Amino acid sequence: xxxxxxxxxHRYGPPLVAGIIIFGLWEALPRLFGVxxxxxxxxxxxLRALWIIFDRGLLVGATLVTLFEALSGFLIGSAAAVAxxxxxxxSELIERALMxxxxxxxxxxxxxxxxxxxxxxxxxxxxxxxxxxxxxxxxVLINAIIGFSTIxxxxxxxxxxxxxxxWQEFHMVVFPNSLPFIFAGLNVAIVFSxxxxxxxxxxxxDRGLGNLLMQLNYNMDVSGMFAVLVVLALxxxxxxxxxxxxxxxxxxxxKPKGLQGSDH
Length: 264
Known about the structure:
mainly alpha; 10 helices
């Protein structure tokens, strides 16, 4: 067995086996204990419902809409968070002026703001992007502040002894040092962005997975609802994997745990 195959089995074997066990138990236990499929539909029923939704042409379009909303909100919220964190950590005056309001805004339940955002922005795709951006903002902000603030004094002293400019100091020391922390926030924010888009669709939308989920709920199609939840889970896994891919490529000196040696 070559080393590449061993790495693949080592990485994907345990979750594959765990998935088979989980779905096997999910299929068997409700039947064993006589639980109605209206409450907990077995995986076979969920797969049938997934195929029906796909065959009707409802799934792909709804998934693309929610994906666009989540990714757009994630990119906008993350970029704003990094910029805000940089300003806060570079200027004591800006930190004193903004931090109380950032802390207060962070304490608000973001989901509670969603109805207001829909009222202000409308039921179009813009309101879903705005909600996703707000929910994505704070995980990245907190981690970026930590990253920009936790720099070894020796590195800064070395750059200043070499008469480096502020820009050189930033892009050669400050920003690379902050990247592991920023990606830690991005890993959380990318999943939260899906939640933000979904919440916006629940409140008011005519398309997207949230809208599809609400339609299935009105029709009491529990298997269909489970099918959409499976799609949302797979979407979250795919987006999380995308962020970890860029993490490995950009922060090559400090890979996330579990990915060391996986790309060789």
